[in-house]
Amino acid sequence: MSPAPADPLEYKPLDGGWGWMVVIGAHISIGFAYATPKVLSIFFNEIQQDLGSSFSEIALISSIMLAAMYAGGPVSSAMVNRFGSRPIVMLGGLLCGVSMITASFGTSIIYLYFCIGVIGGCGLSLNLNASLIIISKYFLKRRPLANGLAMAGSPVFLCVLAPFNQYLLVNFGWRGSLLILGGLMLHCCVAGALMRPVPLPCKPPSYALEKTVEEQPNSGNTKLKKRFVKNAKKFLDFSLFKDRGFVIYLIGSIMFIFGAYAPIVFLSAYAKSQGVEEYSAAYLLSIMGFVDMFVRPGTGLIANSKLVRPRIQYFFSFALVFNGTCHLLCPLIKSYAFLVVYAVFFGIGFGMVFALIFECLMDLMGSQRFPRAVGLVTIIECFPMLLGPPAAGNYTLIMHSTYTDINQSKSAKHSSVNIEHALVLCS
Amino acid sequence: MERELCLSVCVIQLWMESATRKLQGDTRAASLLQLKGEGGGLVVLLHDAASRETRKRSSERPAHRGDRGIIIMSAIRKQLSFQILLLFISCRNINTKTLGATAPPLDPTAPLQKLERSYVLKGDSHTEKVELLNPVSLVLMCTWTGSQNKPTNITGFWSKDGKEIENSRVTVQLENKQYNLKRTFSIASEADLGSYSCDFGGEAKINFVLAVPQMGDERDKPIVSYLGDSVVVPCKLDDSKPTPNTWNWYRANETGKEQIIAGQKFSIKNDEKKTKLVIHDLTADDSGLYYCGAVYGVGITMGRVELKVISFFEPLKPFIAILVEVIILVAAILLYEKSRSKKDYTAAGNGATDQTNTLSSGENNGPEESSSMRQRKV
């Protein structure tokens, strides 16, 4: 297993001080990035009635937003490397705010696809990648904790925005709610303001930038395009595929993401099929979110400890196995009390995995290669994430099976991911 | 008959009104009033022969014969129009009371469909729900197994909505250890629906609740929309319920429900078990309760939707507040950073040596720390 190239840290990461403010900023940014596509579904019923389209057309808004968010990864990483995190997150926040505000005036579904889906998704992708990259720049010793705290933004914002959106919907209708939501998303600009650029020493750290400095005296207008293409290629960096660890991580993460979101989508349907009433079934998801909120920083804290930090990949594998077995045991559950227990364990497993997923990538790739790696990972993750829940839905249709069989297949995938990761450790 | 009487009364009253106005020298009184009553439709056209300056936005309407909508012109002076309105409303209330459903009147000579419902009671009482769609000739049969002591004869009677039906008392004999009561009811209209009970000597009772299929769960949250916008108010019947003959929409006002007629402002789209009321050009007056009625042969089942119309300034205010807050926060953070960097800059000259010292010590610690951290090195 070829080790990662040396990480000459020309500057010592702060590991504290202003770094905690950066963590708050990343928390807000990541929170909006993951929670917004999910909470927008609260408005879909109303929008569907007013615009007179079918439910699948409306649900496509969320999918387009997610797709744009993940697909914009490489572009976002490239821009962060060029301009630093702060302007990118502020631009992302501005884009998100503008997208929601313009969407509130929408009269057709195509307009909403463009505003919320494309523009909103791009804004969120800028936010997400930039936040992750700046954490890797500000922290080294306490990086798992910082990652755990920042990723905790996702369940926190989900738990806060979901009832808040309901309240907005009842009082202002969907147009007013989108307007106010746009205003809230402008807080990503505040998060961006917090992300003070790391003071770089005089020598440019990345060799890509070096090359641009060399070429600059020679380049005229004709060479500008060539340089741009070269830079672009560097950030969709296929040389990363030579790293075995990265490839294994990528394969594992694809399989995990393919199965990860299906249980969330089907949990309430499964509970209802077991005879639980609708309100309690929805409650299960909020239990899961609530547990997730506390598990992520907790996992970060554990991963930071002296015992676990050197073996963080093992811990990540354990989290994946835990997640998988949790789903495997689900078919045995019949009563509501056990479903609640399942939701709690699901929350724990989910939180652990997501707290560690980017920390492990940072660990594998090092602070220098992380921006390019995360760009590549997000754009590749885009596909399983979009295909996962519909594929699970089709699976139920084809096999006439219940949620339980899906669970088994997904958890089988999770367990295989665990085996993959064990291989990663041999370096 | 009543309706025609009422309409003619209305006409006379209006003519008298316009006459008095003319006498009073009111040049803007209504000059022509035309009433057309056709089976189910009432058309009123008011012409303003005189001035136009008080005409409101949507009120200008040329006369259209055969137009079934009620169009009230606002060009008439407020006092007159208010009085005319009052007359109309009072007339219309009588109409709705006597007409009931807007379904075509029943042919009294056609034989009614026969339907039978029966129940065997073992305890004290029981309630049975009967869903009816169309007018039927309903036969209700009650059977009671009797109590501890079984007298040979008991008195049984029928009641509707708690009140005993006249001439329904009969002496019931014990046959095969059971008491039987049977009666035929003609259910022709909404007034005939209700709770029918057969009572066995005051000791046992079976209630049959006759009703049209009820609407499912109603949404308790109002639909919110904006001034000048158009909104779609939906209403849906459960899939398990039968398809109604048609749908009607009503608007709640001070004196009950007023039927909405499709026109420029309202359009109704019916689709078997779903219906949509589209309201264009919303105004603040359009807020309130709307009722959708699924019309069956024998009655109407109502669903309720609330509409709230707000101006765009309402969400705009919190939005502007949030915007101001964001700008203040961003400015505060950036200014704080600038002031701190200025302080660092002035102190930099003094502390330059200190900084380089800390840097070198940091690098020395680096290799030692890497053994505890999982940072790969070549």
TrEMBL record, chain A:
<dbReference type="InterPro" id="IPR036259">
    <property type="entry name" value="MFS_trans_sf"/>
</dbReference>
<keyword id="KW-0813">Transport</keyword>
<dbReference type="InterPro" id="IPR011701">
    <property type="entry name" value="MFS"/>
</dbReference>
<keyword id="KW-1003">Cell membrane</keyword>
<keyword id="KW-0812">Transmembrane</keyword>
<feature type="transmembrane region" description="Helical">
    <location>
        <begin position="314"/>
        <end position="334"/>
    </location>
</feature>
<feature type="transmembrane region" description="Helical">
    <location>
        <begin position="246"/>
        <end position="270"/>
    </location>
</feature>
<dbReference type="InterPro" id="IPR020846">
    <property type="entry name" value="MFS_dom"/>
</dbReference>
<feature type="transmembrane region" description="Helical">
    <location>
        <begin position="373"/>
        <end position="392"/>
    </location>
</feature>
<feature type="transmembrane region" description="Helical">
    <location>
        <begin position="111"/>
        <end position="133"/>
    </location>
</feature>
<feature type="transmembrane region" description="Helical">
    <location>
        <begin position="145"/>
        <end position="164"/>
    </location>
</feature>
<dbReference type="GO" id="GO:0008028">
    <property type="term" value="F:monocarboxylic acid transmembrane transporter activity"/>
</dbReference>
<keyword id="KW-0769">Symport</keyword>
<feature type="domain" description="Major facilitator superfamily (MFS) profile">
    <location>
        <begin position="22"/>
        <end position="427"/>
    </location>
</feature>
<feature type="transmembrane region" description="Helical">
    <location>
        <begin position="55"/>
        <end position="75"/>
    </location>
</feature>
<feature type="transmembrane region" description="Helical">
    <location>
        <begin position="282"/>
        <end position="302"/>
    </location>
</feature>
<comment type="similarity">
    <text>Belongs to the major facilitator superfamily. Monocarboxylate porter (TC 2.A.1.13) family.</text>
</comment>
<protein>
    <submittedName>
        <fullName>Monocarboxylate transporter 2-like</fullName>
    </submittedName>
</protein>
<dbReference type="GO" id="GO:0016323">
    <property type="term" value="C:basolateral plasma membrane"/>
</dbReference>
<keyword id="KW-0472">Membrane</keyword>
<dbReference type="InterPro" id="IPR050327">
    <property type="entry name" value="Proton-linked_MCT"/>
</dbReference>
<feature type="transmembrane region" description="Helical">
    <location>
        <begin position="87"/>
        <end position="105"/>
    </location>
</feature>
UniProtKB/TrEMBL annotation, chain B:
<feature type="region of interest" description="Disordered">
    <location>
        <begin position="344"/>
        <end position="378"/>
    </location>
</feature>
<keyword id="KW-0812">Transmembrane</keyword>
<dbReference type="InterPro" id="IPR013783">
    <property type="entry name" value="Ig-like_fold"/>
</dbReference>
<dbReference type="InterPro" id="IPR013106">
    <property type="entry name" value="Ig_V-set"/>
</dbReference>
<dbReference type="InterPro" id="IPR007110">
    <property type="entry name" value="Ig-like_dom"/>
</dbReference>
<feature type="domain" description="Ig-like">
    <location>
        <begin position="104"/>
        <end position="198"/>
    </location>
</feature>
<dbReference type="InterPro" id="IPR036179">
    <property type="entry name" value="Ig-like_dom_sf"/>
</dbReference>
<dbReference type="InterPro" id="IPR003599">
    <property type="entry name" value="Ig_sub"/>
</dbReference>
<feature type="transmembrane region" description="Helical">
    <location>
        <begin position="318"/>
        <end position="336"/>
    </location>
</feature>
<dbReference type="Pfam" id="PF13927">
    <property type="entry name" value="Ig_3"/>
</dbReference>
<feature type="domain" description="Ig-like">
    <location>
        <begin position="213"/>
        <end position="311"/>
    </location>
</feature>
<protein>
    <submittedName>
        <fullName>Embigin</fullName>
    </submittedName>
</protein>
<keyword id="KW-1133">Transmembrane helix</keyword>
<feature type="compositionally biased region" description="Low complexity">
    <location>
        <begin position="360"/>
        <end position="372"/>
    </location>
</feature>
<keyword id="KW-0472">Membrane</keyword>
